[in-house]
Specification:
- The protein is of the alpha/beta class.
- It has one domain: Vaccinia Virus protein VP39 (Rossmann fold).
- Helix content is 38%, strand content 25%.
- It has a seven-stranded mixed sheet, sandwiched between helices.
- α1 packs across α2 and α5 packs across α6.
- It is globular.
- 39% of the residues are buried.
- The structure holds S-adenosylmethionine.
- The site of S-adenosylmethionine has 17 residues, from α2.
Length: 193
């Protein structure tokens, strides 16, 4: 679990109403759902990810934790009812290869009116992105540089592009800013009530 998972979970824990339901889109091995469950056992967080191996890894870690459920699914078609979630997160998920417009529309369906979606993405244009990315994923600067060049930057979606897709999918913006201590930008979106 990385610092940004803990930071996002802490922020969620402060705003979620008692017994709220949330969705983590592209949850990987369940890092964010598990971080939230440590702070708020009263809430239910459903993580979805199309990767069978990531879901299997997450389920092993979440065994016995009733506040976390992990499902294999893509963001473009969620196996969840409409207006179900109080809030949703997507960390490092909206990239080339994901139909961002469809994903944002589908998450909007699942979130309640007045509910929110917090998106965090790597900002390819952030100053010192390489050094700061290193601290996010591994302590080895050489390994981090290879991951960044090979896997992350070629798939990153420019901030402006995501802003346009957000508008097309009918979300309003609560916050749109670079994170002060991480090479990430944050879009906090809201479904109109
Ligand atoms: C960089 S990882 C981030 C994982 C997790 N959110 C985290 O913060 O640790 C990106 C994740 O997005 C998932 N992903 C890829 N395509 C997706 C899609 N269409 N819908 C939802 N998740 C997807 C991948 O399987 C992967 O687990």
């Amino acid at each position: 679990m990385a610092n940004h998972h803990r930071a996002v979970a802490a922020r969620m824990a402060r705003v979620l109403a008692p017994q709220a339901w949330c969705l983590d889109v592209g949850c990987g091995g369940g890092e964010l759902p598990l971080a939230l469950a440590r702070l708020r056992r009263d809430c239910l967080v459903v993580g979805i990810d199309p990767s069978a191996s990531a879901i299997a890894r997450g389920r092993r870690r979440a065994r016995g934790i009733a506040a976390v459920r992990l499902l294999r699914a893509g963001a473009e078609r969620l196996p969840l009812p409409s207006a179900w979630a109080h809030g949703a997160t997507a960390i490092g998920v909206i990239k080339h290869g994901v139909d961002a417009r469809q994903a944002l529309t589908e998450v909007r369906r699942v979130v309640r009116p007045g509910g929110w979606l917090w998106i965090y993405e790597l900002d390819p244009a952030a100053a010192g992105v390489q050094e700061r990315f290193s601290g996010l994923v591994t302590d080895s600067p050489a390994v981090a540089a290879r991951i960044l060049q090979r896997f992350v930057l070629p798939h990153s979606v420019a901030r402006e592009q995501l802003r346009e897709q957000r508008l097309a999918a009918g979300w309003t913006i609560d916050e749109d800013r670079a994170m002060p201590d991480l090479p990430l930008y944050a879009f906090h979106l809201r479904k109109p009530a």
